[in-house]
Design brief:
The chain has one domain (2-119, 223-257, 275-411): DD-peptidase/beta-lactamase superfamily (Beta-lactamase, 3-Layer(aba) Sandwich). Helix content is 36%, strand content 18%. The chain has 16 helices and 14 strands. It has helices at residues 2-7, 48-69, 113-126, 136-139, 148-153, 156-160, 172-176, 181-184, 210-219, 223-232, 244-249, 278-281, 287-297, 307-313, 324-329, 385-411, and strands at residues 11-12, 17-18, 73-80, 83-91, 106-108, 257-261, 264-267, 284-286, 318-319, 333-338, 343-347, 350-359, 362-369, 374-380. The strands form three sheets. Strands 1, 2, 3, 4, 9, 10, 11, 12, 13 and 14 form a ten-stranded antiparallel β-sheet that branches. Strand 3 (73-80) and strand 4 (83-91) form a beta hairpin. The termini are far apart.
Length: 412
């Protein structure tokens, strides 16, 4: 019967229920926070038949894929505007165990954390604490690149769009060996640049995390405190955190897994890698937290996350290469860009905001269509083939069902 038949599914299907109606059973270490207010949606119109069919087909795809790969588990949520269409946990927190993944199970997000950093920056820009084009040395006067002119040119926009001018993944290998960020940062001045800031896309973790130092200098508050006060608490992300201590003490955690061969997975202990670069890879969250995050990203909480902040982070900053994995996974893939903490795809004539995340034993995927006001997030406690396919497959189903629905409407 497989893992899912043996242990059962932790499943909740919610179709068109307003997010404020969700009641979450928080763990003992969670803080109970006031629900954010949202606009009245009594006049909201939608095609229930369309979304019911879409969700049914996508759920079937996910169940079949998890069975085929014998995955430990995952959790997913689909939202439209300020409503949750579907939220569900699949499988178990630890391979071979009995604890099912539920809506409060916490995962690591890896590089999906970058979107939190850029949105936080946008909030602070709106608060007039800093500006997108401020130079890094305005806040970090001792910071230097090997080229003095490039040091003077480097801006907040450059580090959040991966256009710092440094080689791809500068010092990420040191993070893999648990070298702390504070020990790596002084070494940046030794690196030969590949070009001036703003001219070339080059993905980073260490350089990206300079934003944590910048916002501390601008506000006299550390990055972790700002994330809680500006995002987690206002959005009622009850189990979200941004440090190793919090996830290690949580009673409801999805453990990371590595593939052991022959359709078997081996669970791993939680580890503290990459938490010292919290802006790049430090967020922990449940799928319920991600539901609130998606709804906020679709512009429903302007009192917390201003529209101008979202417009800026979702705007293309630099063209990026089309990687092989994207060509294999996405059909009809057009131009690719990086915004500020977010990737921007053109697929099937639509603009998709996207980011993926990986940290040893975890994968996270998130995507939005701002025009349709639809968003999806999928969290895995393993690195698997499905993680590469889950987002492209959702949009393929969405656009194909939309086309079918349009044809039926025309005939009628």
């Amino acid at each position: 019967m497989g893992i899912y038949g043996k242990f059962g599914l932790s499943v909740i299907l919610i179709v068109f229920i307003i997010v404020t109606a969700i009641t979450l059973n928080s763990g003992s270490n969670s803080v109970v926070r006031e629900q954010p207010k949202i606009s009245d949606t009594n006049n909201y119109s939608y095609n229930k038949t369309f979304y019911s069919k879409l969700i049914s087909d996508y759920d079937t795809f996910i169940r079949n894929s998890t069975e085929a790969e014998h995955l430990p588990g995952l959790a997913l949520v689909i939202v439209k505007d300020n409503q949750i269409l579907f939220i569900k946990g699949y499988g178990v927190r630890e391979y071979g165990g009995n604890d099912s993944i539920d809506l409060n199970t916490v995962f690591r997000l890896g590089s999906v954390s970058k979107g939190f950093a850029s949105v936080l920056t946008g909030i602070l820009v709106n608060d007039k604490k800093l500006s997108w084009n401020d130079h890094i040395i305005k806040y970090l006067p001792d910071f230097t690149l090997k080229n003095p002119d490039y040091t003077k040119q480097l801006t907040i926009r450059h580090i959040l769009s991966h256009t710092s001018g440094l080689p791809m993944h500068t010092y990420t290998n040191m993070l893999d060996y648990d070298v702390p960020y504070d020990q790596i940062k002084p070494l940046i001045s030794l690196v030969d640049p590949v070009g001036p800031p703003g001219k070339e896309y080059s993905y980073q973790n260490v350089i990206y995390s300079l934003i944590g130092d910048v916002v501390y200098s601008a506000t006299d508050q550390d990055y972790q405190k700002l994330i809680y006060n500006k995002i987690f608490i206002p959005l009622n992300m009850q189990r979200a955190s941004i440090d190793f201590e919090s996830i290690s003490k949580d009673s409801n955690v999805a453990f990371p897994h590595l593939y052991a061969g022959q359709n078997l997975w081996r669970s791993q202990k939680l580890n503290g890698r990459y938490y010292t670069v919290a802006p790049a890879s430090g967020v922990n969250a449940s799928i319920s937290d991600m539901a609130r995050w998606l709804i906020a990203l679709l512009g429903n909480y302007p009192e917390f996350i201003p529209d101008n902040a979202l417009e800026e982070v979702f705007s293309p900053q630099i063209s990026t290469p089309v990687k092989r994995k994207f060509r294999h996974s996405w059909k009809d893939l057009g131009n690719l860009y990086y915004g500020l903490g977010w990737r921007i795809f053109e697929t099937c004539g639509k603009k998709i905001i996207y980011h993926g995340g990986y940290v040893r034993g975890y994968r996270a995927e998130i995507a939005l269509d701002l025009e349709e006001k639809v968003g999806i997030a999928v969290l895995f406690n393993c690195n698997c083939k499905l993680a590469n396919k889950c987002i492209p497959e959702f949009w393929e189903l969405y656009f194909s069902h939309s086309s079918e629905n349009s044809i039926i409407a025309l005939k009628n």
